[in-house]
Amino acid sequence: MNVEYETMKHIEEVKKALNQIVIHLLLKGEKHDRSKFSEEELPSFLKYTPLLADTTYGSKQYKVFLKEMKSALKHHYKNNEHHPEYHKKGIRGMNLLDIIEMLCDWKAATKRHKNGDIRLSIIKNQKRFGYSDELKEIFLNTMSYLI
After folding, report:
1. pLDDT digits over 32-50, tens only?
2. 22, 57, 88, 114 - which has most CB atoms within 10 Å?
């Protein structure tokens, strides 16, 4: 067995797999949240996005706005697999690519709020979506890669 050759083959296989992941993530980025421009969602998002920006994530007022957006959000979740609500098993039905997109979505959403804090959102979302302490730590560890 030629160890150097086998090692190079292994490295190329890993690189090939990583490149496939990158391509899928780029495609996810291109189609992210396009449903927000649909007739089922656009009016609600036009009205509530500015209102949500002035609330604290998870607050009573935030939850009231989400209830008022129920119809648009139902459509949105049904059409966007990066939301746990899309999957019958919630976050447990997601794949790693969905989860990466979800984390990027959460991070971007915190930038809309005056007091947005991605680490606090991850902690609050653990209760909302029922993920483990281990997954919470993985999410928190990942934030150092996001601006």
Report:
1. 999 999 999 999 999 999 9
2. 57
